[in-house]
Design goal:
Length: 309
């Protein structure tokens, strides 16, 4: 009697197993068959539908900003598909003539760019120090930085507002920048330290043997390798600062308020001023989207870094 004659006997060497009748691999579970069945075009169509559904508010805001207030009061934004003659750029011309909105947009750039650059630069330097430099209490200092991640922004608003009032920073762009930098650094240091620590030690030792100092090692070796993580951090920080309203509402005044506070003020003072609100809100939304899509590849690489060793 051979192994093929016994149903439960193990396969004998050289004996080819017969192919399954239904064509699926032997021992495949029901969940695997279902996953394999839906991993084709059906899932792709579903993802496309979800993506289009997610873009509906943005598309609606864009079309609303291209209509007159009379048309917006008369019908919904989808009416432009049947009456494309409603589309006009008059609202954007009105927006450019509104000094409050244009000045607030400039203030947003003046706040967001320095706050993002400072967090990236300081966080990169601190992350490298915590990852590869030896100094007393390094691990305890790093634990203190990680502990700052749990401090809510709302807890520090009043104390820091009093401090900024004493030193003359309250109501200024610099005060808003410093607040964002202070609360953005703990996450930046935590993220970049963990990423830099994954760099092979042999690579750094080889650079040191070639005569590279710490600064040159950081600029020529660590920074290029940490590009994806740094890009991800920059995107996170940019989006957080650009879309912030709570911090700007507390620490800015009429001359330093960003676009989020200016739009909120327009809603409070001119509830029917839709010809300014719609284009202003779209510009406030489209710039972060443009930044995200411009660095999308680096963002994905940074998020996936460390997932597979």
């Amino acid at each position: 009697m051979t192994a093929t004659d016994v149903p439960n006997a193990p396969d004998a060497p050289g004996v080819r197993k017969s192919a399954p009748v239904d064509g699926r691999p032997p021992g495949e579970s029901l969940g695997s068959r279902l996953a394999r069945g839906v991993s084709g075009g059906l899932v792709q169509v579903f993802l496309v539908v979800v993506g289009l559904f997610w873009l509906v508010p943005t598309i609606g805001l864009l079309l609303s900003s291209l209509r007159t207030p009379e048309d917006m009061n008369a019908s919904g934004w989808w009416k432009v598909f049947t009456e494309p003659a409603q589309l006009t750029v008059d609202s954007y011309q009105t927006l450019l003539e509104n000094d409050d909105i244009t000045n607030s947009l400039v203030n947003t750039v003046l706040i967001t760019v320095p706050a993002t650059v400072l967090v990236v630069v300081i966080g990169s330097l601190a992350g490298y120090a915590f990852a590869w430099m030896e100094f007393p209490g390094r691990d305890w200092w790093f634990l203190a930085v990680v502990g700052l991640l749990v401090v809510p922004v709302q807890v520090a608003l009043i104390p820091i507002a009093e401090l900024f009032g004493k030193v003359g920073l309250f109501g200024s762009i610099m005060g808003v920048i410093l607040f964002h930098v202070g609360f953005g650094l703990p996450f930046a240091v935590f993220l970049l330290r963990n990423f830099f620590a994954e760099i092979p030690r042999e690579l750094l030792e080889a650079a040191r043997l070639d005569g590279a100092g710490e600064l040159r090692l950081f600029l020529r070796v660590v920074m290029p390798l940490g590009g994806p993580a740094i890009a991800s951090l920059g995107i996170f920080q940019f989006l957080w600062v650009w879309n912030d309203m709570l911090v700007a509402l507390v620490f800015s005044d009429a001359g330093s308020q960003p676009i989020t506070v200016a739009l909120q003020t327009q809603v409070r003072q001119f509830g029917n001023n839709i010809d300014v609100l719609a284009p202003g809100a779209f510009i406030s939304m489209v710039i972060p989207l443009a930044v995200f899509f411009a660095f999308q590849r680096q963002f994905v690489s940074g998020v996936m870094a460390g997932a597979v060793k």
